[in-house]
Design a protein that fits this description.
Chain lengths: 323, 294
């Protein structure tokens, strides 16, 4: 399993990318009109010029840009993302509180989309003009063209307002009591609609790509050989063809992490899911700079970690990638 | 192209212009033609609709949340009792305008970066591809939410915010095409007769690299429309501009009374993006004779 280890070069590169993200985000927020002092004075109901100077001095805003940037990057490297004036909490605490909810949503949706997408793709590739194939085309078109927040709202109207099967919002009811399983069941009940919504975009992508790559693989020589030596159709498809048609799907899935997070922001807003997306929206509206920077940093981190994991998965599936 | 497939013995026709060939294949594709017709209709409604249907979209004309058809309001009224049909028409303008201009920006940045990287290779390519990877790591929607919130939510700023985060796909495609084409003989020939680098890049190579870029550009219009809808759904777009996403975002507060006011703009976005994607698929097949029949 040695090939699973990400190389040192890869990790160094990831770290450099992250620092670049930090620098860009910090510079961007620095360039924007208004600063933390404005936010604070607004929340105090206005402040005179002298107080503003004092605030700027206290938070180090009167120092040169490069010094501020250096300090910020240095602090982040020590896991300190600053202090949110809006939530009155350290940003790291705030984000770590919300991160699990987002990860739960995002990972479940990705897995669901991958599994169902691959199943649909495999099934429909065997009968290119069958019902399943047309279904995949329909799903693909819908997943691509329907705005994800609208899909969510439609599901919400249908399955929690008109037919009250699932809760309208949130992640867990305050009234839930009991053991671990009671909590788990309640969370799952809350998860169904958001996860379905989020995975709808990616299900479309994966099933379509899987069908295309499966059809290509099924036409190749080694599959004909496998069939010729008398293997059953099922074994040929599942054991020989699937393995080779998976790698483009996994590659695509790895490229989608940034899109998954974007989708999560919208889905979380629709279902009031207490994750990073709703936090980001609140922070952006409140102009809570440290929190915004922290969330941008963390989501870039999620994307990068996702990419590294994808590479490892690819190496696991496809020996040709192991160099 | 078509002559290669002709059986022996048929008389030699004059080769059609490649674009005419593409157009002929496009017209054969029923889904793509249907998409194109729907798209043209939507654009016509966006341009001329408000001239004929003169109700002011900001006027409160009737009770809030009147269902479609009530009192002669085809789509009903929104949470403030404003005419939804009028709002939809103005929203179409915003969606199409932002979709087109953001896609244009995306393609412009993407082609520039991709062409330079694919043509020069070496250190230039290394740097540009690192920058591309950097932008792929940024969470697109979050990043553009921040841009819009910080620098103002005007339409040009929304366009820039969308363009700035979505050009990477175009850059990658352009680079791949350039790398494929740059070593072809006709490029060497052009170089041999003294064409300068700029001419080689944009006059010699680019025209042959265009087909996949055009397909991607068409799809970009669709995703830019979705992107804008997302931003305005989150209430981050210009508060003075009516857009489809915004109508959904505003009316979802009382979603039980207003399910129609949420559904109608969603259908509009869906149909528009679907039509664009059908046209994109059609173009893709038309440019690629090999892909026909898939």
């Amino acid at each position: 399993m040695k090939f699973l280890k990400p190389t040192l070069a890869r990790l160094t590169y990831a770290a450099l990318l992250l620092i670049a993200v930090l620098v860009l985000n910090f510079s961007m927020l620095h360039l924007a009109p208004g600063d933390v002092a404005d936010t604070i004075s607004q929340s105090m109901g206005g402040a005179d010029a002298e107080t503003m100077e004092q605030i700027r001095h206290d938070y180090g805003l009167d120092q040169p840009f490069v010094v501020q940037l250096g300090k910020y990057v240095w602090n982040v490297l020590h896991f300190d993302l600053g202090y949110s004036f809006f939530y009155n909490q350290p940003v790291t605490t705030l984000i770590l509180e919300r991160l699990p909810a987002t990860l739960l949503l995002v990972i479940t949706a990705q897995i669901l989309a991958l599994v169902v997408g691959v199943l649909l793709g495999v099934y429909s590739a065997r009968k290119p003009n069958g019902l399943a194939s047309h279904f995949v085309t329909l799903v693909a078109l819908f997943g691509y063209a329907a705005p994800v927040f609208w899909t969510g709202l439609l599901l919400l109207i249908a399955f929690s307002l008109k037919i009250p099967l699932f809760p309208v919002a949130g992640m867990i009811d305050v009234t839930v009591e009991g053991n671990f399983f009671d909590y788990a069941f309640d969370i799952i009940r809350h998860m169904v609609l958001p996860v379905l919504t989020l995975s709808s975009i990616f299900l479309a992508l994966y099933s379509r790509l899987c069908r295309a790559s499966m059809m290509e693989v099924l036409g190749s020589d080694y599959i004909r050989t496998a069939k010729a030596k008398g293997l059953s159709e099922k074994k040929v498809v599942l054991k020989h063809a699937l393995k080779n048609s998976l790698s483009p799907v996994v590659t695509l899935a790895g490229l989608q992490f940034s899109a998954v997070i974007s989708g999560a922001v919208l889905v979380e807003t629709v279902f009031s899911w207490p994750g990073l997306g709703t936090l980001a929206l609140e922070a952006i509206i409140a102009r809570d700079t440290p929190t915004i920077l922290g969330i941008l940093f963390f989501s870039a981190l999620v994307v990068i970690v996702g990419n590294i994991l994808t590479d490892m998965a690819l190496r696991f599936i496809d020996p040709r990638v192991r160099k | 192209m078509s002559q290669e497939n002709k059986p022996m013995g048929t008389e030699v026709e004059k080769a059609a212009h490649p674009l005419a060939e593409t157009a002929r294949m496009f017209i054969k594709n029923k889904a793509a033609v249907a998409g194109l017709i729907v798209l043209i209709l939507i654009v016509l409604i966006a341009i001329f609709g408000p001239m004929f249907y003169t109700t002011d979209p900001e006027d409160m004309v009737w009770m809030a949340y009147s269902p479609p058809g009530a009192e002669g309001f085809l789509f009903g009224t929104d949470y403030l009792g404003r005419d939804l049909l009028a709002q939809m028409m103005y929203g179409a303008r915003v969606s199409i305008l932002v979709g087109l201009s953001a896609a244009f920006m995306t393609v412009f940045i993407g082609i520039t970066v991709g062409a330079l990287a694919g043509f020069y290779q070496g250190i230039v390519e290394e740097i540009l591809m690192r920058i591309t990877e950097f932008f792929q790591v940024l969470p697109t929607l979050l990043f553009s939410m921040v841009i819009v919130a910080l620098f103002g939510a005007s339409l040009p700023m929304i366009t820039i915010a969308i363009g700035a985060v979505s050009w990477t796909a175009v850059a990658r495609i352009t680079r791949a095409e350039f790398m494929r084409i740059r070593n072809l003989e006709y490029v060497s020939a052009a170089r041999a007769i003294g064409a300068k680098n700029n001419r080689l890049m944009f006059r010699v190579i680019l025209p042959n690299a265009l087909p996949p870029i055009i397909v991607q550009a068409a799809l970009m219009v669709g995703s830019a429309i979705l992107f804008e809808a997302g931003l305005s759904f989150l209430n981050l777009s210009d508060p003075n501009i009516i857009s489809w996403g915004r109508i959904i975002g505003d009316n979802r507060v009382n979603i039980l009374d207003s399910s129609f006011a949420v559904t109608i703009p969603g259908i509009a976005i869906f149909v528009t993006v679907l039509a664009i994607s059908l046209v994109g698929d059609g173009l893709n097949d038309a440019f690629n004779p090999k892909l026909r029949g898939r």
